[in-house]
Design a protein that fits this description.
Keywords: Aromatic hydrocarbons catabolism, ATP-binding, DNA-binding, Nucleotide-binding, Transcription, Transcription regulation. With 335 residues, the chain is of the alpha/beta class. The chain contains 14 helices and 13 strands. Helices cover 45% and strands 12% of the residues.
Length: 335
């Protein structure tokens, strides 16, 4: 079954995303603090927006705050506001902070891990008592705000390292929702490509058709920037493509991948020892698999062997490697 959540960017078929949306609906139905986790580009802001629109606060303010984009020296005044004359250069009438602007509605605190420790205490007070203290104020002010926080960093590890307060983490982690990376829900890629192909066709007044091999290459790609990277790649294709058909060569160019090559037929131009011939073919297969899969683990799966066997054979044939993602290797052959 295909799903499309209207007015959001969530298009999915994968059971993992269906589970995420189901939890988000549950969270929207009650006034509970939500913590969204996941890699950059998976759609944390879109999910926060979805929760707000599905909630009883949908007709009230939804204030988005990127904590990582606020200079540390300004963060307290931006979040909690200030009284007239609180500091040099302060507005004469004072200023409402983001929490006051969201009063009665919802505040989305993205990159929550970037809030410095000395301000985490003030945020904890908001969660505990729904009170804020403006800079220069003599008394706290009551507010009514629903908090949705998000991070692409492991807060538990930051807590263990003393960089994030444990009590604040537990207050935020009432309703955790982990959004899976795009590489773990690849069955969604054709749906996403088709959706954004139609959107950009309307925007740029041109049509692009993706071949099956182009889609297959996009499904094989690991998408480190997740859905955001996919959307940007599709738009770039619309902007730069001179042809109406997108094939695997175009995808390889736009994603900076190895260009696909025609399969080399096994030909015999001279008689060589059988053992040498088998070794030559085996080495070529290993190089192709590693270039395609990018890691030993994935390449071993393609070749139907154990990763340890593949590592041993790569060393045997002089295929070098350098540090990379997951199992620690990208191929860099001596060819």
């Amino acid at each position: 079954m295909n799903f499309l959540i209207e007015k959001t960017s969530f298009i999915y078929r994968a059971p993992a995303m269906a589970h995420v949306i189901a939890i988000a609906r549950q969270a929207a139905a009650v006034d509970v603090t939500v913590l969204l986790t996941g890699e950059s580009g998976v759609g944390k802001e879109e999910l926060a927006n979805f929760i707000w629109k599905q909630s009883a606060r949908s007709g009230r303010p939804f204030v988005k705050v990127n904590c990582g984009a606020i200079p540390e020296t300004m963060m307290e005044s931006e979040l909690f506001g200030y009284e007239p004359g609180a500091f040099t250069g302060a507005a004469k009438k004072g200023k409402k902070g983001y929490f006051e602007q969201a009063d009665g509605g919802t505040i989305f605190l993205d990159e929550i891990s970037e809030i410095p420790l000395h301000l985490q205490v003030k945020l904890l007070r908001v969660l505990q008592s729904m009170e804020i203290m403006r800079l220069g104020a003599e008394a706290p002010k009551r507010i009514d705000v629903r908090i949705i926080a998000a991070t692409n960093k492991p807060l538990e590890e930051l807590v263990a390292a003393g960089r994030f307060r444990a009590d604040l983490f537990y207050r935020l982690n009432v309703m955790p929702i982990a959004i899976p990376p795009l590489r773990d829900r690849k069955e969604d890629i054709p749906l996403l490509v088709d959706h954004y192909r139609k959107r950009f066709a309307k925007k740029y007044q041109k049509q692009l058709v993706f071949t099956d091999r182009a889609l297959a290459m996009m499904m094989d790609y690991h998408w480190p920037g997740n859905v955001r990277e996919l959307v940007n790649a599709i738009e770039r294709m619309f902007v730069t493509s001179a042809a109406p058909v997108v094939d695997e060569d175009h995808v390889a160019k736009w994603l900076h991948l190895e260009p696909p090559t025609a399969a080399d037929p096994v030909s015999v131009s001279e008689v060589v020892p059988l053992k040498q011939a088998v070794a030559d073919v085996e080495r070529q297969l290993i190089i192709k698999a590693l270039h395609h899969a990018r890691t030993y683990r994935r390449a071993a799966k393609l070749l139907g062997v154990d990763a340890s066997t593949l590592v041993r054979k790569a060393q045997k044939y002089g295929i070098e490697s350098r540090g990379g993602e997951e199992d620690g290797f990208y191929v860099a052959s001596r060819d």
